[in-house]
Amino acid sequence: MTTKKLVRLAVLTAFGFLLMYFIAFPIPPFPGFLTYDPGDIPGMIAAFAMGPWAGALVQLMKCVIGYLIGASKAGAIGMAANFVSGGTMVLVAGLIYQHRKTKMMAVLSLFVGTVVTSLVMAVADYYIFFPLWGIPVNEALPLLVSAVLPFNVVKFAISSLVTFFVYKKVKNILEVRS
To answer: Which candidate, 84, 59, 98, places its Cα nearest to that of 148?
Structure first.
């Protein structure tokens, strides 16, 4: 890995952490414990500019730093959920986009990434994260259907929209040329 690429990844990781740490807010009408933060956007930008694994690395490092600094009210479980969701998004969108780097493919990759991430998180929440948080089984499915699944669709739709417009402005600085 070149020094240039390493620096780009570090800068995007720092931006992801800062966005996650300083900008987090609930989205009405969802429950207050579901908060939106734009911290996944730098990971998606890294995935588009440098490939899906670069985006996943940015997501991982953002979450590790966030955990070590205590940025998550939900602790290790919250950071693990953040990584699974953000990591899924950057891998799916990045894998699709890397095959054909056009505006239409960017839109398609962000849409598919949002759908797949929302579905993956529904399964992960139901079978892994809800039990770890102590949510009773009889409350898990209604919570998932009424709040968590729609929240994830909205969250990643917002992040996808921002990524689409921001990436256009920064791609020449970040893209790795062979």
So the answer is: 84
